[in-house]
Amino acid sequence: MVARFLKQTWLVMAASLAFGLLVAAVDGQLRDRIKQNAIEKRNRELRSLFQEFGQECRFAEQTGQDKQGNDVTYFTAMDARGRIVGYATEHVGGGFADKIRLLVAVDAALEQIKGYAVMKSNETPGFGDKITNAEFRDQFVQAPAGKLKVETRGDRAVKDETIVAITGATISSEAVTKIVNESIVIIKELTAEPAETAASEKAM
Amino acid sequence: MAGQTDNSTTAGRPAWLAHLIRGLWQENAIFRQLLGMCPTLAVTAALKPALTMGAATTFVLVCSNLVVSAMRKLLVGHLRILMFTLTIAAFVTVADLLLQAFLPEMSERLGPYVPLIIVNCLIIGRAEACASRQGVWTSLADALGMGLGFTLALCILATVRELLADGALFEIAILPASFENWNVMKLPAGAFLTLGILLGLSNHFLRKGK
Predict the structure, then answer these.
(1) Is A16 part of a structural domain of the chain?
(2) Inside any domain, residue A141
């Protein structure tokens, strides 16, 4: 019985081992590069969100815990003189087609939003994917860091708590606004209680 | 079944060359066999992702055909599909990792469609119809022909859709600014429309040629 089983399946077992080794070897070779790509993208987006402070702007990565006890990574932006000019964090929420991951930034006083960058999104081409367009994103820049709400009509140039939805993509617009609102709450929680902030911090 | 080869066309040509040419048009995966419809509809809104998807699929097709062909004499009948899937899954994972490492933006843009190459019936179809029955060189030629044919068809669809949706090719503006973009071409409806029209045209010209 065992001999028959082995005779039939030895190739499957041998191939599984060989392909497992192949995938492990490729992953081992490329893992650092893939991680570096993610870090470079995040740093690029951080610089873009705090571009008014120029190339001298530095970012310190810190970890803390939100009120639910989840570990959260956030970034403190500092200008050339070392003054804190803002904070940013990555946050994920449900979109129309898939999860949306945003990098959200606020100023040091936690009063104004600096903007957001889309780190990952699979929203509908031509509609939901307009969350990456400046026309929609710019509404968040300098908007009050309070509770933003989505309207289907309005003036996008007015900087207030109202976000005008993308035509045909209200769910994506609401998803982005919800993620931004939640990110601000998290940043406020983390920066309000510096004593609870974990010691891990590294300059980038 | 879809993917069965027509031996009459090999007359006068070496088998590997016949296999190579056949995949480009006569047995084109998209226009003649309607295989791999998921990426065909999903990633052809623009030329860059279409070309990348075609290259990734060709890479997996070539690797899996070579491996399946090399071990064809060891395959046990009822376990062969398991072996094909195992082989394809391994090379799709490698392709996915390579894209993440060297083309990270394109990898993000293609999203779940790269891992979904595993269930592309073109690849398992060629493993069953050709690689498990033919030698390594014939299988390699078959994979290259089918892969290039698939890439070509994806690019034709993407050319039409990107041109009408954005007035551009490879994100470079081609049509004048006065051109009104056809937003529907970016959507699944545009993919179905374009595919339907191109299938109709390919059938028309094929019948005319007979």
Answers:
(1) no
(2) yes
pLDDT in tens, A125-147: 778 888 999 999 999 999 999 88
> What is the spatial distance between Cα B187 and Cα A6, in angstroms, rounded to a whole number?
50
Query: Is A185 within the bounds of a domain?
Result: yes
B194, B157 contact by CB (below 8 A): yes
Domain with A61, as residue range(s), is 46-203
Query: How much is the average pLDDT of A78-98?
Result: 91
d(CA A144, CA A142): 6
Give chain B's end-to-end CA distance (angstroms, integer): 23
Tracing tokens 């295989």 back to the chain, one arrives at B35
Rounded to two decimals, what is the model's pTM? 0.79
Q: Which of B87, B100, B108 sits opposite A15 (nearest CB)?
A: B87
Interface-testing mutation among A7, A26, A29, with chain B (most B C-beta atoms within 10 A): A26
Measured in angstroms, the CA of B155 and the nearest CA of chain A are apart by 18
- Kindly write down the DSSP assignment for every residue of A93-120, as one continuous string: EE-SSSEEEEEEEEETTSSBEEEEEEEE
Q: Is A117's pLDDT higher than 50?
A: yes
Report yes or no on A91 lying in a domain.
yes
Question: Once rounded to an integer, what is the mean pLDDT over residues A76-103?
Answer: 92
What pLDDT was estimated at residue A199?
A: 42
- How many domains would you assign to chain A? 1
Interface size, chain A vs chain B, as Cβ–Cβ contacts under 8 Å: 61
